[in-house]
């Protein structure tokens, strides 16, 4: 199953180390089981997005590992891909970038010709073959139509998909230089959030998060004093303040790190898919490792 990780330390810039090659419980180790691509997105001091991604496994991409060790940003977005739609190519690897925003997704949307028809002229923005980038383009179009309101763009795009297309899962994270949005829909896959004070649970510790099954590991000494909010596919430490997002919940982290949540999609998908309904490659991409 694809893995998502997003973190906000806004308005402070913090340095984080993403282990890829040498940690026992590393992103690289996960990529040996989910080898279709790895990506890391963040923002430079002036707000320019930076994306490093590769369509090969992280353990085979030393350049990615070296760059990941030197990341400083207010926002971070990491993704490990297990391909369900689209070949192994950089254009199909998350995160995707549009309008200064970064996007990563875990799930499956079917009937892509119908989605292409809905996109209309906006379809020209899609560079790859994935359902994920197509959906991101729909979010971008709906956001623009609503005066730049990203939450409204996500909600309208997700509602259209839920009503009109066969859908297995639609978990996503979108980041700008100082904001983050996350959606869990429906209840197929988990998505967890931790609003972490500086120093964490005990008030004196740096951040050292690792997924319970060794999926992603991230370390930040800066967060011994700086608060942060983390959104991830799984709980990444024993902090009791982790909570699962509710099905249909849309989360927003503002530039001052104010956290707001609401149920944006209370209804079930009209054409909800089960794992057994998926194409074999799509089904393989969605199983828990």
UniProtKB/TrEMBL annotation:
It comes from Actinomadura craniellae. One of its GO terms (molecular function) is transferase activity. It comes from the Bacteria. It holds the Pfam family GATase_4. Signal peptide: none annotated. Residues 2-256 form the Glutamine amidotransferase type-2 domain. InterPro entries: EgtC-like, GATase_2_dom, Ntn_hydrolases_N. The keyword Iron does not apply. Keywords: Glutamine amidotransferase, Transferase. This is Class II glutamine amidotransferase.
